[in-house]
Write a structure and sequence with these properties.
The protein is an alpha/beta fold. It has 13 helices and eleven strands. α5 links the parallel β3 and β4. The radius of gyration is 20 Å and the shape is globular.
Length: 333
């Protein structure tokens, strides 16, 4: 199957062609017709299989090709657990919708709200948000959700892990019904299913992979090493030419900072992303990594689901996560 078989308009197909996309992934092939038909959907697929396009393409096609004269209040609300993922989704919306009339804004904490508020006042169609800042702006009456038609929860299991369940339910109550509610996640747990039952109506289900499975095009290796020897082993691995674009995961902020300093002292260009960094620092580090200005990005699980960089050659688990799902999200980068 090709994207041309999914009923998408020519402007969307043109944008996909610019991105080099011709054939949909399985999650896209199964989800796009359901979204286009207006049904609620709960979908699960492995990390890195194109979930963002699966839930945005049909909606961008709908919103972007409507006649001019749309109102100023948002029509689409997308909730994500992290700032980085919100930024990534917004970039995708801009890429896929560049030949149609779409207006989007990222609403996240860690930065001043003034610019976000100004953009909202100018009129937007898509709001991509983390729960905390969204609630703040709604309570300040700077964001009006009364016209939202599409409500999307991305990485729903992660939002539950991070304790956002009450915020999500609160926001769901603010979004009017009838609406179309889409819930996407890489892992589908009983808690996610319970949440889905309270925010959706007659939802269809799509799953293209068993829970806690890894994409088969990833080569996995394990190296046994004493803890004291980890820094030197990491350096040895990074001195090979084929590790030109490497993501290193640690379990804590302190470890991320220590690993980054060790690499830099030994001549390896590296930067760190963790929750002690400001949003602007995190964005600069991610941009430097994306553009190849640094060889290594050291991160905690804050970006395990919020980074989408082409050409990552290696993912190194300097410290293993506590559960299988986070491991899958890490290496799925």
């Amino acid at each position: 199957m090709r994207f041309t078989d999914l009923g998408l308009s020519e402007p969307i197909l043109h944008a996909l062609g610019d991105c080099g996309y011709d054939e949909p992934t399985p999650i896209q092939e199964k989800s796009i017709p359901i979204v286009a038909a207006g049904h609620d959907l709960i979908a699960s697929a492995q990390t890195g299989t194109g979930k963002t396009a699966a839930f945005t393409l049909a909606i961008i096609d709908d919103i972007g090709t409507r006649p001019s004269g749309k109102g100023d209040t948002p029509l689409v609300l997308i909730l994500t657990p992290t700032r980085e993922l919100a930024q990534q989704i917004d970039e995708n919306i801009r890429e896929y919708g560049k030949y149609v009339n779409t207006r989007s804004v990222v609403v996240v904490g860690g930065v001043s709200s003034a610019q976000q508020i100004n953009k909202i006042r100018q009129g937007v169609d898509f709001v991509v948000a983390t729960p905390g800042r969204l609630i703040d702006l709604v309570e300040q009456r700077e964001l009006d959700l009364r016209d939202v038609e599409f409500f999307i929860l991305d990485e729903a299991d992660r939002m539950l892990d991070m304790g956002f369940v009450h915020d999500v339910r609160r926001i769901s109550d603010w979004v009017p019904r009838p609406r179309q509610t889409l819930l996407f996640s890489a892992t589908m747990t009983s808690q996610v299913a319970s949440l889905a039952s309270t925010v959706q109506t007659n939802a269809q289900t799509v799953s293209v992979a068993p829970p806690a499975t890894v994409a088969d095009n990833i080569d996995q290796r394990v190296m046994y090493v004493d803890k004291a020897d980890k820094p030197e082993l990491l350096l040895d691995l990074l001195r090979h030419d084929d590790t030109e674009h490497t993501l290193v995961f640690t379990g804590t902020r302190v470890a991320a900072a220590m690993v980054t300093r060790h690499l830099e002292v030994n001549g390896v260009k590296a930067s760190a992303i963790h929750s002690d960094k400001s949003q602007s620092q995190r964005q600069r580090a991610l941009e430097a990594f994306t553009k190849g200005k640094i060889k290594v990005l050291v991160a905690t699980d804050i970006v395990a689901r919020g980074i989408d960089v082409d050409g990552i050659s290696h993912v190194i688990n300097y410290e293993l996560p506590d559960d299988a799902e986070n491991y899958i999200h890490r290496i799925g980068r």
